Amino acid sequence: MTQADGRINAAENHLSSERIGDDGRLIRCIEWYKGWEEATHEARLEATLDRDYYDNKQWRSDEEADLDDRGQPIVTTNKMGPMLDFLLGVEATTVRSPRAYPRTPAHADDASIAEDALAFAADETEWDYKRSYTAKHQVIEGIGGHIHGVIEQVVNGSRRVILTIDELEWDRIWYDPHSRKPDFSDAQYLGIVVWRHLDDLYDDPMYSGKRDVIEAAKGNFADAQLSFLGDTADDAPRRWFDSKTSRMQIFECYWTEWDKAGGRTIWGAHFNRADWLIKPFPVPFRDDRGRPFNPMELVSGYVDRDGNRYGAGRRLRSPQDERNKRRSKMMHHLSTKQVMYEDQAIDDIEEFMEEVAKPDGKLRVNRNAIAEGRVQILDGSALAMGQFQAYQATGADMDEIGFGGPGDAPASSAREFSERREVGTLKMRPIFQHLERYDWRSQRKVWWLIRQNWTEDMWLRVRDDEENEGYRFVRINQQMTKGMRVLDLMDKGHTPQKAISLVFGPGPARVYDQVLQMATQRLQQEAQQGFEVTDDPADIALRSLMKAPQAKDPFTEHDVAQLDVDIRLEVVDASPSVQAAQHERLLEFLHRMATAGKQIPDSWIEMVIMSSPLANRRQLIAKLKEPPPPEVVQQQQQQQQAAMQEMAARIAKLEAEAELKKAQADKAGAQAEAVVIEAGKAQAATAKLIVETEAIEEGALKPSRGIGNDSALQ
């Protein structure tokens, strides 16, 4: 239990179902609504003004009357509206894709199934449109949201549960006014108020058997006013029932109750002023940990210290007022003239002023009145210039206070335009963060509803830009045996040990290893004995496993109810300018590769084509993947053969040249070796001669008798 939950438990313990009966709950729900209506009255009136300013209704009726009396034009230069539209455009072009991260290795292969299921549900519920619809209320009025639901249908004899998301109008949402968080996670209760025609109420199967309750409320409307303040939650009248149009105010509320053991229950009910239309019931929706969750999901723009919700336009209203009044005053100065005159300088001043107001008026003054300076006509050009400068300053103030787009200056490239756009939206990052959290919380609830309700074998058609058709089919909850699941995992690339461990657990995987080892030893013995071995030990071990009774146990492939994943959001700006900037970067990268003489893989070319804004990019990629015509293939083969022959000739030539150079090198080496030997001999003879000469000089060598003596001395 969180700290916020603890505070709610302590503050609202008196709401325990064991202490308050249905009547007590009804009174409390009505008091809740009245308390919300009173506490948020002023804030909601301000929100209606924010919407009026966005819709170009920026002058009060008394201001328009005053301007009309003085002949001043009513001018509205709505800069606030386009600034908010720019913000909404950024939101609409931002892709927030849910990503599933497995919590255990056993669910690593099936995590993508959760993403496919969420993508299918988003298409079925039109989530992108409804999120943008909520974002508009968040940005303008400051609050928006939706409510989750399920509808069970039988199609062709098969049960099918359809998830629903119903967007809510900002002025039909009521809530705990003590809540402070932008996502209302600290709210004790959330509710919806709607106006329904009596005929619709009578025919609605939800309220079957409640005609007496409707009639009772209808008959007691005079003293049963819920909308006692008469404000945004009203229909046309200022009471909860309109006898002229036969429309009645219906309330829907979801609240939290705690029991003594700390258990939490989310209760829901429908009621009017007289009684319950649907008595309190426990909301059956559960998260992935078995805890109940509120089907309503809300988001705010900003929250002040008093808990009032407001949007991005609130801070722009004051400079927008100044902008309009400056522009109106400027035009008034330009279109009017003042006359300064002395007494008796003009005979009939009323006639004179009428002529001044005419573009071709004839102005008559007494003699010498102009020459003597007794009559002067003053135009408002100087005053208008001052108003114009102030008008321009208010535009700059709005840009500084609020946010802006890429500006009016031309961009040299899509990248520069994208960078300007990103800078222009930095000030609105808090609102985007709240919206991203709203999206994430909504996707989690959708995933929980999928786990809880999609239990049948079913096919999902999922959009996929990488497929030529733009989509692919995914099957969930497919029934099979555990043995078939092991084979399926092996087909997907898992080892037998890994597949068996994922399906049966680590114990059977160890048994498989033991059987595999025994089979390997037996086959080796048979081979040593001279027998021909044709079996594979892995096949023997796998067949042994498949004969086990557990292999025939039922197994659900892609069982979303058992899939344990965390849902996160991947946020990508998919605006045309950003996509064009990314395309430019890819082209520059490929250009550098081509300039460097590197070969560009076909997969990279496909990536560049897919990043382009071309409408026929899938056809281009399909054309790129098509095999070339036979004549082109034959020509390419001939060119390849010629290139191979040329390459072989070049290789043979290079080899011959290498052999020649080697022979020359060997010959040169032999010659060099002979030279070295001769040089060694000459060096040895020289050394001997030197030694003998030194010996004679020292008298160490004495002449002996014989024939050689004379020759030796010579």
Explain the overall architecture.
The chain is α+β, with helices and mostly antiparallel strands and 714 residues long. Among the domains are: 319-426; 575-626; 631-698. It contains 23 helices and 19 strands. The N and C termini lie far apart (126 Å). Residues 1-21, 222-229 and 700-714 have low confidence and may be disordered. Helix 6 packs across helix 14 (429-453) and helix 17 (506-528) crosses helix 18 (537-546). It is flat, with a radius of gyration of 45 Å.
Helix tally equals 23
Unreliable residue stretches: 1-21, 222-229, 700-714
Biggest sheet features: 6 strands, antiparallel
Name the helicity range: 40-55%
Structural class: alpha+beta
Mean pLDDT: 79
Q: How far apart are the termini?
A: 126 Å
Give Rg in angstroms.
45 Å
Shape: flat
**Beta-strand proportion:** 15-25%
Number of strands: 19
